[in-house]
Amino acid sequence: MAPIDSDDNRTAGEGEELRAGRRKAARYVVPVAVMGVAAATIGLVPALADSGDPDLPKVTAEQLIEKIAKSDVQQMSGTVRINTDLGLPDLGGLESGLMSGMSAGPGAGGDGEGSAADPSAKLTELVSGSHTLRVAVDGPDRQKLSLMENAAEYSLIHNGDDVWGYDSKSNEVYHSTTSGSDGRPEKDVPRKDVPRKDVPEKDVPATPKDFADQALKAVDDTTSVTVGGTAQVAGRDAYRLVVEPKQDGSTVGAITVAVDAETGTPLKFTLTPASGGAAVVDVGFTKVSFAKPDASTFDFTPPEGAKVTKGDESAKAPEHGRPAEGGLAEGLDGLEVVGEGWNAIATFDTGARGGLPTASPDGDLGALGGFLGSFGDQVKGDFGSGTVFKTRLVNALITDDGKVYAGAVTKDALVKAADAAR
Known about the structure:
The protein is an alpha+beta fold and 422 residues long. Helix content is 17%, strand content 31%.
């Protein structure tokens, strides 16, 4: 990453160590499942609520990022609260369905195939609303994430070579294995500082560290990074790391990461929009422990009578990190990125002349038409005309000749990008 905006002086060697440390910080992930392009775009920011301002030794932004990078917490457990408010209209759960379709997960299809316990579909629920998660980690080979629901629970367990997903509401089980994909013997246990090649990385951020890693990847010379005081999160003393765009035109106001003063582990992540108001994404521990979880935490046996679906038996199951056939993401083959830093805009051509349809011949908008039409603005420019669909963070311009421009930027920035590409 490029240099941070800071008044502190450092040598070239120190700068190299800092960049190396950031690269290390960006690869610490809890492996779970894929979600698709939407979550990757959303996984940027949070607003911080705290319960005190502890008196801690002063640190610089560079030192705090180094603390995150050097954090080597291998064992922890706790409860995480996720609140996501993109400002989408209330469509009775349709927004989650659309996100599931984007991920092309087999459990998201309407054909009755696949498994309700498939994580590639189930975890898309995290992109909207409020959710409570219980997490446990014991090194690179054992993790558990449980999504708590009303009178139900969804659990994703990685234990050695096995990955289990269990949906108590439907009594369905999803099972896949992680061994053998790189020809390595099972007895070959990876070093703790090297990610396993046969374990899929998680594209759906679920813990404060997941979100913080995504945010730190965006740090470059278009970014200001400062230390914004201290806080107390889940009973732990923490520093606040504040990340802000320097560029005009971004919808991102600021990202605040609460970093545990003792371990360097991110405890809370908050993204506030440039327009003000409540956080778009707010993810934080309400309880946390760095003690070794009990080994039985990661044990799983399918309940009697449960429907068990093997990973390679799922209908149209995608490879980890790749969209399945027929998913909405399939149309993104020509995806390009214009601009840089916080003003980067993704663009592609849908091939749909006349723009996206807003009504059928009988006047029925349908689910997609209603979803888009509820927050679309008509715009014109040198490019022609089109419609801008807005959330509190991500905006998209769909032109009448079928081109799409999307990013965490303002409506004017999208129109300018479309004009420049004319």
